[in-house]
Fold this sequence. Notes:
By secondary structure, the chain is an alpha+beta fold. Helix content is 23%, strand content 21%. The protein contains 3 helices and 4 strands. It has a two-stranded antiparallel sheet. A two-stranded antiparallel ribbon has the order 3-4. Helix 1 packs across helix 2 (57-64). The chain starts with a strand and ends with a strand.
Amino acid sequence: MNYEYHNCGAMMWLDERINRSVRSPVFMICCAKGKVILPPLQDLPSPLDTLLSETDSRSRSFCQNIRMYNFALSFTSIGQKSTISLLIPVGFIPFVFMKKCITE
């Protein structure tokens, strides 16, 4: 990635621009040309920050297995009210979780 977009600071490839300008490129996939403004990220909780930034064996193990932890915990607190929950294959991407919500 070789270009920092002035609207949101996202790092982009110049070829991802939606116009032809090299001097003032416009990008759509990060912030919709400045229409989406996200708040700054909050500081990480201390235990998580330590695991991600230290170099001890516990931190290294955590970083090596972080994707598995994310997969394992991804639906633990979804808090849904639904009548149907399905895993539907969508093209060549992994299964997608779909839900039919109860309208109240």
